[in-house]
Amino acid sequence: MAPLSRFLTRRMLGPFRYFCFSAHVEQSSSPHSVALSDSYSFSSSSFPSSSRWKLNQLWPVSILLTAAAPLVLCHEESNDRHSATHEHDRALPISFLEELKSICGDNRVTLDLDERSSHSKPMSNFYPVINIPDVVVYPRNKNDVIAIVRTCSKYNIPIVPYGGATSIEGQILSPYGGLSMDMSLMKKIVELNVEDMDVVVEPGIGWQELNEFLRPYGLFFPLDPGPGASIGGMCATRCSGSLAVRYGTMKDNVLAVQVVLANGDVVKSANRARKSAAGYDLTKLMIGSEGTLGVFTEITLRLQKIPESSVVAICSFGSVKDAADVAIAIMHSGIQPSRLELLDEVMMNALNQANDLSLPEEPTLMFEFIGTDAYAQEQARHAHKVVKEHEGHSYTVFETPEEKETLWKMRKEILWAYLAIQEKTAALTTDVCVPLSRLAECISRTKEETDASFLMCATLAHAGDGNCHTAIVFDASKEEDVQEANRLITFIVDLALEMEGTCTGEHGVGIGKSKYLEKELGIGSLHAMRKIKNALDPANVMNPGKVLPAQFCS
């Protein structure tokens, strides 16, 4: 059992060097170019006479980003009306902007092009931007949100809630322009109940920031998605992370939410009781709704005690199937890991390159066991026995808190490490999840398909709950690359659905996964979702173009 220092030749200091796709910014010289003036309008000689901003009309913007996959937009009545290249003109009514300023103040309502462009595409999103928000606002409290939503509803302006901008499937894209509601100023910790082990927070606070606050109380919030994710965004996408195998996903760790609906009404879904059978479960309805049903203003979270001790280990295998088989065997044995992660040899190579390590570049499992020191050590010994029975090797335990923290930090950033060493221009990731018994088959068949492809692909998984990610990098300027990337994505999703799995285990639907919902859930389920959407948001102002496929949005 060698410590991490055996492999570590350079500690990772400071923030990780994130990989970000480049954007081509182009200021148009046409009569339709952006003209941000005192009248808050886009110049044109043919602007529609109607003073109302039309939700279902798509207008040109001055920022173009290249990417590979087509957008799926709701209310797609005609190619002209929703084509990214068919130019229309748009203007926000002066009265609308003045009302926003009366709500938020001049300094929290911006028409700045750079600010709007920065709210048009998250760093981790690989779908094309065909529009940017027309205005960005920064509410400070629930009353601001209510007033903003009511104003947008009055003028029929789309609302796109904006959290930590870490979503993967295009949840914060603004295909219809409209208003980006940046929740970053709403990050208060409203109420901490130490004895009840729960906390009430505003949606803009990040999970890492929250855990820093909770640490002195011996508590933590046990979900750990990508760095920078906000609690509101985590609720919106129903995310999870590497700790889900022990603590569950977002839906299992939220006790109640407060939501502002499209008409400005405020809905409280529950009290703080750990269980309730009172009425419809509005909490779970809102979690995973991706801003299409309302805007979160308060969230009540279930907390956990910080474990007394932890044991962290890794081991290597001859194939991804062998590694997945061990993950399944560990879960069947009664061992309760708090983390059980799988990385293929490509990801291990990226981890080594990004961090100057010399870990074995083979399919690898990463384990964590928590509890009392005696319990964690006992669980680790049982896991080691299972590993040896399945011919795993290089079983290494990390001893110090610094080594453990460094390992999980590197794991959190492994996708960006992988993308950073590539020379391609775009990437797509899968997020399938299958029943645990099918995980080994799913991963091995996926690897067979991706290894045979001419594109570079890598696989990692939250192996303890059957959630598998494949990252596919390609040149977006080459049609054959684009077609192959989309073929691989479709193959992997179809494979998961064949195994009674899902197209998205934790990233959410957004734009990228909506086309798979009919095959996964059936027409009846989608019609039911449409009725819920129409009942709560009949004008479709709440994050339009997300979740529901286009044919189910009218």
From TrEMBL:
<keyword id="KW-0809">Transit peptide</keyword>
<dbReference type="InterPro" id="IPR004113">
    <property type="entry name" value="FAD-bd_oxidored_4_C"/>
</dbReference>
<dbReference type="GO" id="GO:0071949">
    <property type="term" value="F:FAD binding"/>
</dbReference>
<keyword id="KW-0274">FAD</keyword>
<dbReference type="InterPro" id="IPR016169">
    <property type="entry name" value="FAD-bd_PCMH_sub2"/>
</dbReference>
<dbReference type="InterPro" id="IPR016166">
    <property type="entry name" value="FAD-bd_PCMH"/>
</dbReference>
<feature type="domain" description="FAD-binding PCMH-type">
    <location>
        <begin position="129"/>
        <end position="306"/>
    </location>
</feature>
<dbReference type="InterPro" id="IPR016164">
    <property type="entry name" value="FAD-linked_Oxase-like_C"/>
</dbReference>
<dbReference type="InterPro" id="IPR006094">
    <property type="entry name" value="Oxid_FAD_bind_N"/>
</dbReference>
<keyword id="KW-0496">Mitochondrion</keyword>
<dbReference type="Pfam" id="PF01565">
    <property type="entry name" value="FAD_binding_4"/>
</dbReference>
<keyword id="KW-0560">Oxidoreductase</keyword>
<dbReference type="InterPro" id="IPR036318">
    <property type="entry name" value="FAD-bd_PCMH-like_sf"/>
</dbReference>
<dbReference type="GO" id="GO:0008720">
    <property type="term" value="F:D-lactate dehydrogenase (NAD+) activity"/>
</dbReference>
<dbReference type="InterPro" id="IPR016171">
    <property type="entry name" value="Vanillyl_alc_oxidase_C-sub2"/>
</dbReference>
<dbReference type="GO" id="GO:1903457">
    <property type="term" value="P:lactate catabolic process"/>
</dbReference>
<dbReference type="GO" id="GO:0005739">
    <property type="term" value="C:mitochondrion"/>
</dbReference>
<dbReference type="Pfam" id="PF02913">
    <property type="entry name" value="FAD-oxidase_C"/>
</dbReference>
<comment type="similarity">
    <text>Belongs to the FAD-binding oxidoreductase/transferase type 4 family.</text>
</comment>
<dbReference type="GO" id="GO:0004458">
    <property type="term" value="F:D-lactate dehydrogenase (cytochrome) activity"/>
</dbReference>
<protein>
    <recommendedName>
        <fullName>D-lactate dehydrogenase (cytochrome)</fullName>
        <ecNumber>1.1.2.4</ecNumber>
    </recommendedName>
</protein>
<keyword id="KW-0285">Flavoprotein</keyword>
